[in-house]
């Protein structure tokens, strides 16, 4: 049996497969692809959504769809690459790698881009007074360009030892040439992009170039200085016709990066607006859509993991009431799967009513203080009811009603287990020699608390 769901592996050319597009976002993706394919002016689009909403899986399928249309596409994981010293080198290196991937490495446009990238990088690094350049970030450049960029460190060290007035004069004299270097780079970028991907004939029979789509994923998870530098370089250096950037991020987290860099008093949302043209949101914001997507996701988890039906329905009701992200739902489901795996060998040794087990997995994942109370045997039914939002559960569901009754039976006051209302619940305790008031505490300590998965 599995205890962790498999990672969704999306191939570069795969696109929206029915197996992996579990939230049925293909039509939305095709509409977004149509938008970026017909706009020539440079666009910066933010694909906004909270952590765990399925952005990365969607964007990888979307990238495959774009490639099938003939678009040159670059996928860049900002979180995995935030060790790089300079955002310019990171982005330019990806463009060079894409050109070489399309076997354009020997073309005049490619060679021109290499040369202008080296000069522009030299100017940018000098203006930012950056001394260190990691060799690992220069792998896409040829030997001459690497040597030129690495020489910046020596130049700066020499400049730093000069007299201050001579240093200032030097910077002023270089300002004009540095500006020309960056303008030359932008021109070379436009020329290189014109040779990438495919050219399609429009309705008027004129050919048009399919834009380069540069996807920056996980922007909200990388180091704040690197995130801000990426935004600034995209805006001021790489903004040329037929190059579109798609920033995959939770915008609220990027706002925190702005505050980290410029202080808590800055209007972070207004500041960020100058870096993008529009925001798009993944389908699933409406109540019906979000509930449908949640059900699809739980079906996906259920196909790969082993759950009791009552337990997974408990998680679905809690997640729906709280509008939880898929990543949070997955975390709760993994705790449930671990707990079931831990107690599978001899079920008669373990008492684990599915609603109690699922509820404790929920608390351990998202309400650790209440879980500690459950372990100590002092959790109240009112606290559990509030945490699980029982009041918002579907009233017409007999399964939901029984789950709520389980928690009321275990934690409620003045419960007479001999009455007809509670006799069925009490009957399950006989083989385990457990008092009603100890059910939650025992399951929490002997089953759910045995393992902890790390927070991301």
Query: How many separate domains?
Result: 2
What is the chain-wise order of helices and strands?
HEHEHHHHEEEHEHHEHHHHHHHHH
Structural class: alpha/beta
> Which blocks of ≥5 consecutive residues have pLDDT under 50?
129-150, 156-164
Query: How is the biggest beta sheet arranged?
Result: 5 strands, parallel
Average pLDDT score:
81
Number of strands: 7
Q: What percent of residues adopt helix (DSSP H or I)?
A: 55-70%
User: If you compute it from the alpha carbons, what radius of gyration comes out, rounded to the nearest whole angstrom?
Assistant: 28 Å
Q: What characteristic shape results from the CA principal axes?
A: elongated
Strand content range: 5-15%
- Count of individual helical segments: 18
What topology, given as strand order, has the largest sheet?
2-5-6-1-7
List the helices and strands and how they pair.
Layout: H1 26-38, E1 43-48, H2 55-69, E2 73-77, H3 87-101, H4 108-127, H5 143-160, H6 164-193, E3 199-201, E4 207-209, E5 212-217, H7 224-236, E6 243-249, H8 251-262, H9 268-273, E7 278-281, H10 287-304, H11 309-322, H12 326-342, H13 354-366, H14 368-376, H15 381-388, H16 398-411, H17 420-427, H18 439-446
Report on the architecture of this protein.
This protein is α/β, with parallel strands linked by helices and 456 residues long. The chain folds into 2 domains: 26-281, no CATH class; 287-450, no CATH class. 55% of the residues lie in helices and 7% in strands. The chain contains 18 helices and 7 strands. The protein has a 5-stranded parallel sheet, with helices on both faces. Strand 3 and strand 4 form a beta hairpin. Helix 7 (224-236) crosses helix 8 (251-262), helix 10 (287-304) runs antiparallel to helix 11 (309-322) and helix 12 (326-342) crosses helix 13 (354-366). The protein is elongated, with a radius of gyration of 28 Å. The two termini are 24 Å apart. The relative contact order is 0.11.
